[in-house]
Amino acid sequence: MAKALEITNLYYKQGNFVLRDINLDIEENEAVAIIGKSGAGKSTLLRLIGNAVVADAGVIKYFGKEMYEDERQTRGDMSVIFDESNFNTELKGIRLAKEIKRFEADFSLDRFHEYMKKFELDENMRIRFYSKGMQRKYALALALSRKPKLLIMDEVTSGVDENSRNRMWEVIAEYKKSNTLAIIFTTHHLEDIKLAKARTVTFDRGGIL
Questions:
Q1: For residue 122, how many other CB atoms are within 10 A of its CB?
Q2: Which of 7, 61, 77, 110 is at a distance of 20 to 30 A from 50, taking alpha carbons?
Q3: In sequence order, what are the beta bridge partners of 199?
Q4: Residue 82 backbone zone (phi > 0: left; psi -120 to 50: alpha; other: beta)
């Protein structure tokens, strides 16, 4: 069976920063936490995996295929939560979900409503009125409503209180009970690693230790 993610000899340069010789495999249903000091390259790696930026060299395979081999399916199989919100915050929560549904047939509005209730979020409120922590929970609700097989999260619990952090990981665990889901995430919180039951990978100066 193909691994959820296979990264081989990945290289990326931007200005004076270089990410080099990255080799990493993630099994289906495995959780991997990327840890390290700020500026080590953790977020850059997730942007490369999420195809927000393109590597200068190396290979990333998703369930045995590179992005160009079946881009539509690959993008459909993964959900990405970046460290900053990348959606239109002027929209109401439900309006954005319906806009996503227009373009993604597999996006489930029923699941979205369920997750919004679990996170105690008002879907009729404009997103810009959500606190930072609420926006992180909203982003997770959207991500899981896409029915992903690979979940990529950059500091997903940043700005989230302890109770909300626990709830977010509980919801992810509930999803994994009935769905195959590999997770790769960055965090500065050891509690996230425990709650996710994650293997840790340490980054330093653009490489894996």
A1: 13
A2: 110
A3: 32
A4: beta
Measured between alpha carbons, how far apart are the two ends of the chain, in Å?
A: 28
- Rounded distance between C-alpha atoms, residue 150 and residue 29, angstroms: 9
Say if residues 33 and 185 touch (Cβ distance below 8 Å): yes
Divide the 209 residues of the chain into consecutive groups of 10 and give the mean pLDDT of each group.
91 94 96 94 95 96 95 95 87 97 95 97 97 94 97 93 95 96 96 97 91
Q: 112 and 141 in contact (C-beta within 8 Å)? A: yes
CA within 13 Å, CB half, 108: 14
47 C-beta neighbours (distance < 10 Å), count: 18
Rounded to the nearest 5 percent, the helix, strand and coil shares of the chain are 40, 30, 35
Distance, CA of 168 to chain centre: 13
